[in-house]
């Protein structure tokens, strides 16, 4: 999702909180790094995330609300409407899925934020890392996604904004494309569908 179907530039929310709390740069991630990792594979729930944020940063309930709102604002970004429109048009031509490194609570917020009745209307299946307990670039994440979709890796084109994930997809037999813009990505999709790999 993030970086491809949603544009998620850094908003600077973490440095702002560090300045607000008079903490040295890097403190938030140092204190909450294990929370971010656990949340990305569903090892903790949202209530525990909030409790840890409160405890580790010394925030009251209203501050935790504001902190989490800033986190989700950057995480969700804004929909890449042009590419989403392209994907909608592909439903009748191929099998579509999303494999996303995510965070606990992401599915519900994505559905609400991107104004789809259900994100599942866009693709056949969405695989969130926090729901399967595995992050990209772990090869198991790609194989599990293929299993969910009922497709073979060698028939798939995988698109991501991180080179490490694209290389991992290629490592399991998929075609891989590094997302750097809509126009080239749409052309790459068309080449794949036409069999011009």
TrEMBL record:
Pfam families in UniProt: Hydrolase (PF00702)
Gene3D superfamilies: HAD superfamily/HAD-like (3.40.50.1000), Putative phosphatase, domain 2 (1.10.150.240)
Single GO term (MF): hydrolase activity
Record's keyword terms, sorted: Hydrolase
Hydrolase recorded as keyword: yes
Keyword Hydrolase in record: yes
CDD domains per the UniProt record, alphabetical: HAD_sEH-N_like (cd02603)
This protein's name: HAD family hydrolase
């Amino acid at each position: 999702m993030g970086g491809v179907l949603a544009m998620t530039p850094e908003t600077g929310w973490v440095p702002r909180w560090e300045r607000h709390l008079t903490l040295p740069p890097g403190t938030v991630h140092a204190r909450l790094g294990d929370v971010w990792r656990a949340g990305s594979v569903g090892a903790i729930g949202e209530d525990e995330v909030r409790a840890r944020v409160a405890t580790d940063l010394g925030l009251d309930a209203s501050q935790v609300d504001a902190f989490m709102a800033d986190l989700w604002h950057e995480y969700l970004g804004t929909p890449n409407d042009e590419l989403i429109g392209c994907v909608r048009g592909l439903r009748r031509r191929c099998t579509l899925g999303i494999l996303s490194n995510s965070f606990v609570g992401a599915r519900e917020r994505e559905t609400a934020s991107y104004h789809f009745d259900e994100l599942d209307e866009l693709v056949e299946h969405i695989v969130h890392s926090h729901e399967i307990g595995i992050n990209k670039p772990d090869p198991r994440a790609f194989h599990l996604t293929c299993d969910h979709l009922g497709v073979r890796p060698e028939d798939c084109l995988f698109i991501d904004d991180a080179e490490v994930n694209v290389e991992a997809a290629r490592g399991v037999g998929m075609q891989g494309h590094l997302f750097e813009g809509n126009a080239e990505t749409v052309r790459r999709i068309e080449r794949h569908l036409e069999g011009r790999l």
